[in-house]
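User: When convenient, might I ask for sequence and structure tokens for a protein?

AI:
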Amino acid sequence: MGTAPASGGISHQRLAQISRVLLRPHRLGRPPAGNVFSVSGADGRGAAHDLQSAWAFAYAGYLPAEEGRREALCTVGNGYFATRGAVPESARDGVHYPGTYAAGLYNRLIDTVAGETVENESLVNLPNWLFLTLRIDGGRWFTMESVTVLDHGLELDLHAGILRRVTRFRDGQGRTTRLEQWRFAHMAEPHVCGLRTTITAEDWTGRLEVRSAIDATVRNAGVLRYDSLSGRHLRQLAAAECAPDTVLMVVETVQSKVRIAECARTQVHRDNGPCAAERRAVADPGWIGQDVSVSLGAGETVTVDKVVAIHTSRDRAITEPATAAAECIARAPSFDDLLDAHVRAWSRLWRRCWIDVNGSEMLRPIRLHLFHLLQTTSEHTVDLDTGIPARGLHGEAYRGHVLWDELFAFPILNLRMPLVARALLRYRYRRLPAARRAAAEAGHAGAMYPWQSGSDGREESQRRHLNPVSGRWLPDVSHRQRHIGLAVAYNIWQYYQATGDEVFFSHYGAEMILDIARFWSSIATYDPDRGRYSIRGVMGPDEFHTGYPDRPLDGIDNNAYTNVMVCWLLERALATLDALPDPRRLELTDALGLAPSEVQRWDELSRKLYVPFHSDGIISQFEGYEDLAELDWERYRGSHPDARRLDRLLEAEGDSPNRYRASKQADVLMLFYLMSADELMYVLTRLGYSWDPALIPPTIDYYLARTSDGSTLSAVVHAWVLARAHRHRALEYFGEALRSDIADIQGGTTAEGIHLGAMAGTVDVIQRCFAGVEIRGETLYLNPYWPAELGTLEFTMRYRGHVLSLSVTGKQVRVWARGGTPTPIRLCCRDSLTELAPGQSVELSFPGQA
């Protein structure tokens, strides 16, 4: 970033080009609270959208009860860090919760819970760089609660990556002020963020004082359930003015010893030029800033630009974070120039990740979901050691840990940003030694990945969790969800299929697949009465069942999802050995000490694992599931209108979901999400079971009737499995998945961080389910079931070095190969096989499809 002189405010014409507000009510499903509006912008192809635009989200009116949700949904980020959409003058107060989180930056704290010492690692809330407030003639500092709010709105421009806030207020002296703010987390310069504040004295004359600061007194306190636990992760190391308009704050995490430096430059402009202003340094422990004063007349406007650099000791190619942050700010250009580069970077990103649904109200939430995925995992992620946090970089639920939600994000990244997907898989590879240690400590071979992962790959699942309904701290055995390793292996294989990345697969992916297969081989035990192998004491995707009624915390046996996916994995492990070049295969088997007898056992297990079935042929969720009692859902929902978290309600009544055929989320149905009917039939046939795909519809109906949808992922999976047989029901679930965070259907959880897996999953449903994109072997398959009532679907993707554009309607699909490697790709569409070279296109019709 070359040095550039400070400049004045952005012109009104330029503002209009970047984003303008269209007051059109949100009409997806029932209107969510908070009056969501649509905002327009460029469509990535140079044309402006009309009133059917879907490029932004906006909120009108100030509703304190809605602030937490809005802050999470209006987060701005760039993959390196993200900042919640809290108004800049706010502090943590039960209404507002400012939060900034850097990818992969964790710290541990120790507490005593229910008489037991527990250690929790959390994604750290960094010093609040955003803080800025004002007062007039030495009066009271502005907050939303201290004035009469006349107008208030937030507008999140998805195309430009900008959050705009406009507030008009009247203070206690009757003075009316208009406040407009723009903020961004720079998508081209990952360490830079900015806040522009334009203040207009509508009907008063006086002395305006602006306080711009960095607040390091913050703590992790964004989840009420964790409120009794320690949250003070930072200690101050230094704070100082390092230039007439610049302050620096340096802190360190108390356990992980990561240093964080934030350097903030505050400049004042009037009439498109620099403005003379008085400055005064202000500092307290954990807090440093400047008070900047100017005189204003009625109708006059002043602009304050705050540009901030954030560096940590985890960064590469720096000497140390304070120096790096100070140098970054010293050479940073004006806010205008930074904003231009930021908007251009987002435009390039959207060209790569283009999606459009002409004529559908669903487009806006789809783009919002993709926007938040791109803010959490951008190209800046490539140089970081980080996974995909289940709640993004948007809040503190799950303490910022990485779970299996990445399973729903990789299909999007593999086909758009393969380098990012590769980097995220490298996060898992670096933690392979920890997974091996965990398996060995449990008495098993291979690699046992943790259900919740953080800094170093150990199991981060909490040992006790609070039931907010009963107020009791309960044992937590979610670490028994060993199927996380299956998700890791599945992601590796799908990445390899999408990219053909032989280098990654040979040097990293194969080793993980083989060691995960080795773990499952060692955990399986032979049952001579059945002549089959069993996997006992685990949990499936359904977190309600932690055990049996007489053994509530010991896990369940032969979870169908787990066992079927283990069979899939073992066959992939055998295929991996076959696919490796001879020298690498010999190196790897020697390094792992992998004996031929183990490989033979994998083949045997992949043919003899036990899968439970009900008497009518429906796949049983786990062994003994059919023997559990039926829950009276009609009666229970009558007394509990929101029974999504059935486990909490039952525990508060002295009962347990372990007694019932009742699930939190899709479990058996996950098999239909990850596998086609043909693939599932192949696996079950390999296991020696005679299974009729005609059982899919009754299996779907059986489990839909017994699922509380306590996870946002459930609606994604259910929309998928219903798409072929019950399209209108599929669209109902899809609509619920789209609004899960927008409407906060789980009653307060969005404020703790968005549900990134569910957001990515909605895009995945569009891509892999409705558009029918599937990758197998050396072929790209298209089997579209796009609902005609949704109009035309258009999106871009990358497959094995080729840039493809797809257009799907209810009756045809067209694929353009816009560029890429000279080698043609194989495309199979409804059993019609063709080759597609760069510059070519193919159009296929399906006259029989509705």
Observations:
- The chain is about 30% helix and 25% strand.
- Residues 515 and 592 are 8 Å apart (CA to CA).
- The two ends are 54 Å apart (CA to CA).
